[in-house]
Amino acid sequence: KRIIKESENLFIKFGIKCISMDDICQKIGISKKTLYQVVSDKEELVREVMVHHLEEEKSVFNSITHDSENAIDEMLKITQHVLTLLKRMNPATSLDLEKHYRELFINMKAAQFDFIYNTMKKNLEKGIKDGIYRDDLNTDIIAKLYMTKAMSMINEELFPDDQYDKTTVFVEHMIYHLRGIISEKGNEFFNKYIQTIQ
């Protein structure tokens, strides 16, 4: 667990390619022999880190859902969590994963998409049930539209780091999303939270 966690921290901060197995051993204070008793190679280590990261994210999202006042509050807390993660993450991490571990990247992206899609769909259903989202929403389509927009926000070609602040992009996305789905009752909650969002 310690090897996976420390490796994850290094990959998030510096990217995957530039971190060697020697770097990981030095950071943790173990020998390469010990490291290779846990994983057979770097690819296996990257896979273990990605699986662990996704499971951690699921746990955080479940806690957010449990602790939220309503569906709008849940969306705001999810956004805050994602922003915190993005501020920690080196853009090279995702690029390295896509370029050097293509199959793993595709599989993890699909798993992440399914997880976030299901989270969004449940959020929409919860908001409709509580009367704070419009009752005429097609939850399947809206959840997929949300995912498509969310993926575009981390696209370096559309939103280069040197031209766009990630926080601003995510906040604008969240306001845009909520404005399109809230009901009149939901608008009261939204106005209550708008200052927090901004």
What does this structure look like?
The structure is a single chain. The protein is built from ten helices and no strands. By secondary structure, the chain is mainly alpha-helical. Helices cover 78% and strands 0% of the residues.
Unreliable segments of 5+ consecutive residues? none
Mean pLDDT score: 90
Helix content: over 70%
For the record, give the distance between the C-alpha atoms at the N and C termini, rounded to a whole number.
37 Å
How large is the count of helical segments? 10
Shape: elongated
Percent of residues in β-strands: under 5%
Global Rg: 19 Å
N-to-C series of helices and strands: HHHHHHHHHH
What class would the helix/strand composition place it in? mainly alpha
Please summarize the sheet with the most strands.
none
Q: Tally of extended strands?
A: 0
Structure described in brief:
With 198 residues, the chain is mainly α. It contains 10 helices and no strands. 78% of the residues lie in helices and 0% in strands.
